Amino acid sequence: MAEITKYKINNQGAHRFTMYLFIVTTSMIFAGFTSAFLVRKGGGGAWTPFDIPAIFKVSTLLILLSSVFLQAAHIANKKQHKLMTAVGLFFTLVLGLLFCYYQIQGWKQLNDAGVYLSFNPNPAGPYFLVITFIHALHVSVAILFLFIAFVHSVILLRRSNSTEILNEIETTEKGILNIRTDLLTLFWHFMGILWVYLYFFLTLNLK
Amino acid sequence: MQTTTVHETHADVHVHGPGHGGGHHHTETFISKYIFSLDHKTIGKQFLIMGMAWAIIGGFMSVLFRVQLGWPDETFPVLERIFSTWFTDGKLNPEAYYSLITMHGTIMVFFVLTASLSGTFANVLIPLQIGARDMASPLMNALSFWFFFIAGVVMFASLFLPTGAASAGWTIYPPLSALPQTSPGSGNGMTFWLIAMVLFVASTLLGGLNYVSTVLNMRTKGMTMFRLPLTVWALFFTAIIGILSFPVLVSCVVLLIFDRGLGTSFYLSNIVIGGKALPYAGGSPILFQHLFWFLGHPEVYIIILPAMGMVSEILAVHSRKPIFGYKAMIFSILGITVLGFIVWAHHMYLSGMNPFLGSVFTLFTLLIAIPSAVKVFNWLTTLWRGNIRITPPSMFAIGFVSMFISGGLTGIWLGNSTIDIQLHDTYFVVAHFHIVMGIAAFFGMFAGIYHWFPRMFGRMMNETMAYIHFAITFIGAYLIFWPMHFIGLAGVPRRYYSFNEIEAFSQYGDLNKLISVATIIVFLGQFLFLVNFFWSMYRGRKSVQNPWQANTLEWTSPIEGIHGNWDGELPTVHRWPYDYSRDPNSDIDFIPQTVPLTEEEKKDKIHH
Q: How far is A26 from chain B (nearest CA, A)?
């Protein structure tokens, strides 16, 4: 009776693929929202377009810039440059948080301009607010994972300076960080692209 | 009891020393092995057990409201003693009645026939039939079950709320579902319903992403897409439908949550309750229906496709014939998948939608008859002149085909926007969808359980009990739903609490009694299945390695169900899964997928 060897699930590549599928599901949520928007807009009844504050342009730039940093971190991680990975993740994190902050400021400005959520006789306002809010919610969850990846990268950075005994553990941990940054990069870029789509969709349809 | 000589060609895969049932799991505790397991086989069983519990709860709800519909004048003090909050003076409260039909629908459609059917068989069968160690992500797979479990806890808890569970019907149309003032169940019960469903969608997506990823990335050597068993094809497309349609339910539900809690008016407009005008303006209730049915219709294919896949496999195995039209089966699944996304508005012909849209949707709806008929034709031709082995799985699989034909034919009526004017929201609709997706899917599920029980638990189920279970369920299901067609044609509306006051409909009282009696008998009959299931799990006849003499890979994996599925190397696949009765001169009428092609076969292009 042969010894049962410890098998390893050969699922490299499957993770990336699953993330692509997850991106598809997330796209479907927003496809649902934006088609509801179009159906309602085209369906007649009260619908008053409004001006989208310029501050949303700032947040657009922020999220795109954060993608650049994350891509840099991703490349640095592949080249096993630990410091650059951590730094890249840090700036992505900061820019991601700034994006959320600017979104909140944008909603406040809209609120002051009379585009509010509750009992608004103009449905265009609530549509804008809910769609952008759900997007920001997705970004927030991604920020949480970004934070985990950042902490992870810092731990690896510190450990590499201490001992060499942990080399073996480190190799597997690095594997985990690779998967993390890999998947995170995919999702984060998607969040950026999704935001650009939503921004143009909403701007063009609220003219 | 070793099955045949063919199996010895790959005996090295499942050589086992004595007494090591769980010997590999030396580091596993009870909790890590049975509760927070990452093993797809255990997770599949978890889905199955949960599904059985939910089916009993959901089925019992139907007994309670059938009691009301069958005997609207009688009182039932016994039931009041047990369900004191739902009964007053021995009679079911109208509010409780609406909660029960809502929860019956929700539980059966989502918890039993979506989560449990796909969850059980995708988990048990996908890795085993494609020759993988486990799912692409075992962790996501386990999370899928636990999200389902928590969703179930929330949904179950809603039954005990003082205001009662959700009662707006499983389709939760606003404004009824959006405004707590409209009915008690639209208060906290609806909130619980929505929370449970968001968790449920998370579960379905975690599972679905994993199933698709696993099928595409984790197949063993030689397992090309066109060598996959039809079960895997069906579960694969089911997962794709779920991935594309369930997120839209999230969009739909999110907007409803905003309407309920934050005063938006996505679905609400011009509502006056009790003489008081509400401040909602500009919403569209039809928009809700579009978003809901964009999930809701594909949902019925999510329910029926796994059953179709299993029935295809089981019919081929038990009639000892290659499945007729393997590729036609795959392309008809694909056809159903694609068409399933563009027919949703046939649920909305009478909603006030543009009638022109109705005719477009009629066209697409009737087109679905084509792939469905292809499948029925292929099942019948697979059975035709086969060496049919009468076994519990084959009985239920044939029962599935019967139900699918009966229910499918009435679908052609209902798909017509003009005929739907008469039949909309009558018992005809209830009969149609129960037979074609409820009963049929249950038959597929039972067929699957009886067929793969030895794979899951290493023992056979008792056949006598299984045949009695089949007879009760098959005859009983027709007794319940066949008469409903006629009362539906007569215009009796669904969801009504009582027809006593309506002269035209109260004349069907006897028919309603018959339906209710049949419901109770069929419900009790299911306990025979439960007894058989749990008794066989511990006391059933020990199964041999390949009890049905089937070709697919799951029967080459050690019957004890080790983590990792195969000792040593993964099996290599050399042929498609349906080489039954190839050689009329041979005693062995099946050639497993792991058997290499012979020289003769290599010349013959038919064999994959």
A: 7
A4–B562 C-beta distance less than 8 A: yes
B284: left (phi over 0), alpha (psi -120 to 50) or beta: beta
Residue B462, domain member (yes or no): yes
Contact B266 A5 (CB under 8 A): no
Q: Are residues B186 and B300 in the same domain?
A: no
CB B318 within 8 A of CB B307: no
For residue A12, what are its two tokens? 């490299």
Kindly determine whether residue B282 and residue A117, on different chains, have CB atoms separated by under 8 Å: no
Burial of A53: CB neighbours in 10 Å, binned 0-12, 13-18, 19+? middle
Interface test with A, best of B209, B215, B245, B292 (most A CBs within 10 A): B209
Q: Is residue B573 part of a domain?
A: yes
For B50, the token pair is 């949960």
B562 shares a domain with B469: no
Contact B480, B522 (CB under 8 A): yes
Under an 8 A CB cutoff, do B266 and A127 touch?
A: yes
What DSSP element (H or E) covers B566?
none
Q: Which of B276, B296, B321 is the last residue of a domain?
A: B276
Q: Rounded to whole angstroms, how far apart are CA atoms B460 and B540? A: 6
> Is B8 a domain residue?
no
Å between A21 CA and nearest CA of chain B: 6
B353 and B272, same structural domain? no
B270 and B288 together in one domain: no
Contact B213 A43 (CB under 8 A): no
Do B295 and B200 lie in a common domain?
no
Q: Say whether both B178 and B97 belong to one domain.
A: yes
Claim to verify: residue B502 and residue B555 sit in the same structural domain: no
Q: Which residues of B touch A31 (CB under 8 A)?
A: 248
Residue B448 CA to residue B338 CA, distance in Å, equals 25
Residue B178 and residue B253 in contact, taking contact as beta carbons nearer than 8 Å: no
Question: Measured between CA atoms, how close is A161 to chain B, in angstroms?
Answer: 32
Q: Which amino acid is at B96?
A: A
**One-letter amino acid of B584:** P
Mention every residue, 6+ apart, whose C-beta is less than 8 A from residue B312: B230, B231, B234, B323, B329, B375, B378, B379, B382
Determine whether the interchain pair A18/B137 forms a contact, defined as Cβ–Cβ distance below 8 Å. Answer: yes
* Residue-level length of chain A: 207
Tens digit of each residue's pLDDT (9 = 90 or more) over A115-149: 999 888 888 999 999 999 999 999 999 999 999 99
Answer with the one of B247, B276, B305 that is the final residue of a domain.
B276
Tens digit of each residue's pLDDT (9 = 90 or more) over B342-391: 999 999 999 888 888 899 999 999 999 999 999 999 999 999 999 999 99
How many separate domains does chain B show? 3
Which member of B213, B251, B567 has the closest CB to residue A36? B251
Q: What is the token pair recorded at B480?
A: 């319940």
Specify whether B125 is located in the same domain as B85: yes
Q: How near does any CA of chain B get to the CA of A198, in Å?
A: 15
Q: Give yes or no for A39 touching B (CB within 8 A).
A: yes
The 10 Å Cβ neighbour count of residue B382 is 26
Residue numbers of the domain that contains B357: 284-523
Question: Does residue B159 belong to any structural domain of this protein?
Answer: yes
- A123–B567 CB contact, under 8 Å: no
- 3-state secondary structure (DSSP) of residue B277: strand
- Residues in chain B with pLDDT values less than 70: 1-28, 605-608
- The residues with which B145 forms a beta bridge, in sequence order, are none
A122–B133 C-beta distance less than 8 A: no
Structure tokens at B520: 């109770």
Quote the ipTM score.
0.90
